[in-house]
User: What shape does this take?
Amino acid sequence: MPRRRVSLADLNRSTATGQAAGLPGPALPAALGGFDTVGVSQHAHPTVADISECLFFSPGDGRIWLQDQRMILLHSEALGSLRRELIDSIGLDKARGLLTRAGYVGGARDARMVRQQWPDADPPAAAIAGTRLHALEGVVQVEVVHVRYDAETGDYEGEFIWHNSSEDDEHIAAYGVGGSPACWMQVGYATGYVSTLFGRMIVFREVECRSSGSAHCRVIGKSAERWDDPGQDLFYLNAQDFVGTPPAAARAPSRKGTLGASPGSVALAGAPAADGATMVGASSAFNAACHMLQRVAPTAATVLFTGESGVGKEMFASMLHRISPRQAQPLVALNCAAIPETLVESELFGVERGAYTGAGASRPGRFERAHGGTLFLDEIATLSLVAQGKLLRALQEGEIERVGGTRTITVDVRLVAATNVDLRQAVREGSFREDLYYRLNVFPIHLPPLRDRRDDIPLLMGHFLAHYQRKHRRQGPGFSQAAVKAMFNYPFPGNIRELQNLIERSVILVNDGEPIAPHHLFSSGEQPGTGVMSLQLGADTTATLHMPWAGGSPPATQAAAAAMPGVAPLHQAEAQLLRQALHSAAGNVASAARLLGISRATLAYRLRKFGIPAGRP
Assistant: This one.
């Protein structure tokens, strides 16, 4: 197949042509993304519109997501300032290495997102998605010159032209035009993206650069073994001894944070528990709790988990036991809320035969069964004051007596407790013993609610989706973008337990081959919020910013948003929204500002900006 020059505009036009013709996927050659391919099947690939819908804005809590990865809008000038500081303080080579590796991490992370979101896309088609992601993230516009990929041998070769490189802009502003290429992060990104996508090291090299006087930037990517001298390129990735897989030093760390199985170790790589459950998370709150767990695990200290119902206290307690020196001994759990008050003592301490009517045999209590291991008492705040007093004595003395018995039994137990009640407040109210509280509160670990750790939501969604698809023998492409946005906005009063139930329900309700939609998730009266903004692109790739208002939209705002055309430039959409609000408020600027949820001064400024006169437009 002859090689030919292909631009993204060509690919977009051919994609739109194929969809307009009613084809199930994009028209050729867009399905191949301008690739010369050997032994590659033709699957639909993610379009610019598909990729743009992965970008979510949530100004209510100050976060931006690219699917399950938190992003930031960073001033290019600020990044340029950091670049100058690095070069001036540690030298050009070290700064280049740091920035190249940072780019590699971003590229590898984007590749995993594309692979997860479009698992059926061929590697060449998925590779084209990387060029679109780079443009969507505001880094550079990529023009595909040619790419060749052999699916049988894994051999790869590609050539690209980069336009409007933000790295070049900042480097030239600081140092002028020099003698060497300067798009270090972009080269690292391309290397990380394609290497992760193809599962082997693909080295990209910038052969022309605006920073060295060329009219544009041109990069070539080839399998590492096809370069005569890849050592210099791999040097900046700390991978001089490359053998055939992406270098460990340059691999992006997994964001699925889990505690490893070895005692006292934390590994952000995923470690399934004995029962198949896995602790999944990426938020700072989750990672902080994991590190605290790591610190306390090698000790025998009592641990108190606090947090709302459903945040994962039992899972953390189980993981604490598995990474502690007591992991070979039993973990015994007791839900204090599920035991009648009359039976609490016998459940904790055991009972001797004949101690009361119906006690036909002696049996050990939870303390004895947990000897040498860990005793987990869930919902400990539900214990009566009498039971609290007996528990306190057992903890202080390390000795128990069975109900109806006279013999003292020494026990070696590590106590782990959990509660969704504010124990300090319970002490003040007199419903919880102060001395027991201080006995339990040796090493408290608070687990925040899921609404405060939204970075964990997409990871949990993917984890439970895979689990319940296996359990219920269902198949499907995953979640629609509308479902992902709805889950980001939902407050989750039931926390992780509720999210788990929503996913299982949706897996059961959805038809095979159909993506999970909001109505599959929220079919029992739940009300998802509307605080996330998203980009949607029409066939002409013009962006519209869809802006739901957190807490529900005022009627005038809903009417104005509904009046906006489906695809329009952002400034036109904003101007039309302002006119509609003014119309609904009969020309009163203050009332229109209240309808829009902004200040009068802000609205007045925007009216002047768009040349809209105050009063009824």
